[in-house]
């Protein structure tokens, strides 16, 4: 089982008081592993920032309603599929990667390094969206691609997209 490791804001929004404890496992055998999720507000709109723990590949899902956020596993799978297609993975490759997430659990965030990177992404996403004049003028898929081509210090200044493609070689 893979996990969406959610911040307290997300857990409160989806109404989970005591998230699942993650059993110990060998993360080295999991190509992509778990994802961290944070709830942001950009221009007074609720957005989910989803970041892969291993690669720091990020996905921003903007302008969500509470009912959508409560169905977080579906939102995650749809957003990941769309991001993979935008990154020129074939539909078959994307489906194979998504099959790793057929069973998704919800737990608390655990990795401070990833949380720090998420704070960096939050600042960058907000800045770019507001700089473009808001959601109505910003192409979110292009922005996600740009962010995943931004080097992150937590991964030795590698590009998240390169790390994702490398990790996905064993899946797709």
List keywords for this structure.
42% helix, 5 strands, five-stranded mixed sheet, Nucleotidyltransferase, domain 5, 172 residues, alpha/beta
Which CATH architecture is right? 2-Layer Sandwich
- Sheet with the most strands: spatial strand order: 4-3-2-1-5
Treating each run of at least 4 consecutive H or I residues as one helix, how many helices?
7
Average the pLDDT over all residues and give the rounded result: 92
CATH topology: Nucleotidyltransferase, domain 5
SS strand fraction: 15-25%
Structural class: alpha/beta
Low-confidence stretches: none
What is the number of domains? 1
Let me know the largest β-sheet.
5 strands, mixed
Q: What is the name of the CATH class? A: Alpha Beta
């Amino acid at each position: 089982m893979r996990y969406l490791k959610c911040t307290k804001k997300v857990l409160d929004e989806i109404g989970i008081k005591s998230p699942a404890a993650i059993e110990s496992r060998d993360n080295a055998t999991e190509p992509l592993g778990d994802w961290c999720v944070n709830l942001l507000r950009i221009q007074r709109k609720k957005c989910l920032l989803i970041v892969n723990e291993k690669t720091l590949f990020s996905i921003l899902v903007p302008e969500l309603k509470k009912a959508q956020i409560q169905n977080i596993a579906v939102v995650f799978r749809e957003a990941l599929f769309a991001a993979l297609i935008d990154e020129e993975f074939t539909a078959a490759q994307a489906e194979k990667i998504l099959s790793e997430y057929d069973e998704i659990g919800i737990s608390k965030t655990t990795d401070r390094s990833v949380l720090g990177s998420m704070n960096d992404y939050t600042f960058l996403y907000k800045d770019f969206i507001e700089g473009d004049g808001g959601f109505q003028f910003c192409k979110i898929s292009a922005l996600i691609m740009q962010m995943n081509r931004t080097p992150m210090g937590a991964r030795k200044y590698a590009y998240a997209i390169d790390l994702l493609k490398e990790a996905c070689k064993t899946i797709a």
